[in-house]
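[SOLVED] Predicted holo structure with SN-glycerol-3-phosphate

Edit: marking solved, answer below. Original request kept for reference. I posted the sequence and ligand SMILES and asked for the 3D complex as structure tokens.
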Amino acid sequence: MFETKRVKMYKITVVGSGNWGSVAAKLIASNTIKLDSFHDEVRMWVFEEKLPSGEKLTDVINKTNENVKYLPGIKLGKNVIADPDLENAVKDANMLVFVTPHQFMDGICKRLAGKIRADTEGISLIKGMEVTKEGPSMISTLVKKQLGINCSVLMGANIANEIAMEQFSEATVGYSQNKLAAERWVHLFNTPYFNVTAVQDVEGVELCGTLKNVVGIAAGFVDGLEMGNNTKAAIMRIGLKEMIAFSQMLFPSVKDSTYFESCGVADLITTCIGGRNRKIAEAFARNGGKRSFDELEAEMLQGQKLQGVLTAHEVHEVLSHRGLLHMFPLFSAVHAISTGQLPPSAIVKINNEKPRQVQLQSML
Ligand SMILES: NC(=O)c1ccc[n+]([C@@H]2O[C@H](COP(=O)([O-])OP(=O)(O)OC[C@H]3O[C@@H](n4cnc5c(N)ncnc54)[C@H](O)[C@@H]3O)[C@@H](O)[C@H]2O)c1
Ligand SMILES: O=P(O)(O)OC[C@H](O)CO
């Protein structure tokens, strides 16, 4: 009897190596060594930087198997190889995982255009969007347009440090047409402690992940003002209504059922309880808005990046362009407070009569 060997068809590169990027590489690497169809090696592109020791971050990751700056104390797996050269890191891959702060993606896509394999599938773990002269664009759309590849998304209640410690959590893959590719991503990410489900609603999943960061900032203001659980629950409820209204305004195809997946209510809850957006917004409110978000981010996150303040700004641009600010009082207040136009206490003075009455299309 001859033993038939399955061909290793898929080669993975993770584009990004921050807190979540490093955990994503670890998760994936724990699966590629077990699954026949994937090459064992997972390449991880590192935005190179010098550590206080004078060493390069990439060298230290490859020497210690740890991202000592963004995920200290966690072994990534020997099959994770850090690479500071973006073009080199992606050249052999046919599955690309994008996981950088969203503000860097336009530049990264521009550098990658024309330099990736034609048969590449992408997935974005990035919670954010872009607003250009043409209007709002989700990051998966930016990848599709600039690189000419299909791009799914993976979002969920996923505080990276908890998943790094292999505590049970769930995530949602959102896809548009290619169900087979979505199933391959589920296969690649799923572990006994990371339960992944796929839904055919790429915009809904991505907008949940993006907009919850704005609500996380509002929740942080409430904590900084030392208000209680009821207030935070109210902020989360109003925030969820605005998330639904905003998503369905941009994409009427977004499904109500998506909000009940991990990417929806569950991510909103974890972000408002334990996220970085919440933490920095709390410090901002405790300081009475006198220290800027940029200053607090640099001091408290040491290189990690917030997405919520930028997203509040992007949402504000979309709403003011369409003359709809009055229908989104919580989103508008977060933007006004974070830019110093209103004091943090304004977060509980919003007029909640205004948001559009959200009708869940299919759940009622
Ligand atoms: N950390 C989490 O718990 C978590 C969980 C789920 C999703 N996310 C999302 O994942 C995305 C990435 O977040 P993260 O936590 O991995 O990153 P991070 O905030 O921990 O780290 C910042 C990263 O940006 C890199 N960087 C700095 N300047 C850069 C530049 N000019 N160009 C390119 N890269 C640069 C840094 O090297 C670092 O890798 C974000 O959209 C975030 O919302 C994060
Ligand atoms: O720490 P935050 O606020 O960026 O949130 C992290 C994750 O998105 C939670 O799922």
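OP edit: Residues 202-224 form the longest helix (23 residues). Thanks to everyone who chimed in.
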